[in-house]
Write a structure and sequence with these properties.
Elements (H helix, E strand, L loop, with lengths): L1 E6 L3 E7 L5 E8 L4 H19 L5 E6 L2 E3 L4 E5 L4 E4 L1 H9 L3 E5 H12 L5 E7 L3 E7 L2 E2 L36 H7 L7 H10 L3 H25 L3 E5 L7 H17 L1 H6 L1 H4 E3 L6 H9 L9
Parallel strand pairs: 1-4, 4-8, 9-12, 12-13
Antiparallel strand pairs: 1-2, 2-3, 5-6, 6-7, 9-10, 10-11
């Protein structure tokens, strides 16, 4: 049995996975903040899954946001969790006596989506949440690039006179096509900014229509960049804003179809058929983390 954990800003989502790939059990607890709390709650989830299934685990995979050294298991920087320079992988491995693999949360979600959707070949998972990033998977194995930065598409500048980005550049894709971009462009609205924006646009609010269309165009640019530069077979839309479902997918495909009518090159890419929605009813990141566990895992000291 392998165990996969998705450590997020508010909760840790853990799954126990059988050799067949079937999810045996699932446990969720609050994450906490700071190294001690995060480590304690991580171990709590793992031990709970072992106890509930009555099956020992052979390896553990962990997905976590921030700057991660997947070779050593160190979390270099995860500001929302209060973690900086924490040897999370080695600490969990020593506590449990099993191999542990730690990976960026978008990467494990990409792997989980490929597994859940039975996608082989080169695929991209475009995570649209507070920020914007992609995970790349080839035949259900992660492709990290030469320095581990493959998929950092949110920090590609697309507007020379655009807004400042947290990365220090201006006009990055993340300033146009992300949850934080929508919160900036559509401020002061109760509840989910994205849902509220799309509701208002559907009701005919001209300002909301302009903001929505700019956001959709930004997501379309991200998909185009991934297809043109990496030539992935498909781009799977995931992350918090994937809950928009067809309300996002339909205008996105309409954008591609309109561009294809005036550009033979864009038409040749077949973008409308290459963009998919990730399932929202499965723990993709935790599932993907479980499938990272056997590869290059960090052994206990």
């Amino acid at each position: 049995m392998r165990i996969g954990l998705d450590i997020g800003g508010t909760k840790i989502d853990g799954v126990a996975v059988a050799p067949s790939g079937a999810v045996l059990d699932r446990v969720r607890v609050a994450t906490g903040s700071g190294p001690d709390a995060v480590l304690a709650n991580t171990l709590r989830v793992i031990r709970s899954l072992v106890d509930r299934t009555g099956t020992p685990t052979t390896a553990v995979g962990i997905g976590i946001p921030g700057l991660i050294d997947h070779e050593t298991g160190w979390v270099r920087h995860a500001v929302n969790l209060g973690l900086s320079e924490v040897a999370l992988g080695p600490l969990v491995a020593d506590a449990l006596g099993v191999p542990v693999q730690v990976e960026n949360d978008v990467n494990v979600a990409a792997l989980g989506a490929a597994q859940a959707m039975q996608l082989d070949g080169p695929r991209a998972y475009l995570n649209i949440g507070t920020g914007l990033a992609a995970g790349l998977v080839v035949d259900r194995r992660l492709w990290r690039g030469a320095r581990g930065n493959a998929g950092e598409i949110g920090h590609v500048p697309v507007l020379a006179d655009g807004l400042p980005c947290v990365c220090g550049q201006r006009g990055c894709l993340e300033t146009v096509a992300s949850g934080s971009a929508l919160a900036t462009a559509w401020p002061g609205h109760a509840g989910n900014a994205a849902t509220d924006l799309f509701d208002c646009a559907d009701a005919g609010d001209p300002t909301a229509i302009a903001v929505r269309d700019r956001f959709v165009a930004g997501v379309a640019s991200a998909v185009r960049i991934l297809v043109v530069t990496v030539d992935v077979e498909s781009v799977v839309i995931g992350g918090g804003l994937a809950v928009l479902g067809d309300r996002l997918l339909a205008p996105l495909r309409a954008c591609f179809d309109a561009a294809a009518r005036s550009s033979p090159f864009v038409a040749s890419l077949g973008l409308s058929s290459r963009v998919l929605l990730a399932p929202t009813d499965q723990p993709l990141a935790a599932l993907g983390a479980a499938f990272t566990a056997p590869e290059s895992a960090i052994a206990p000291a």
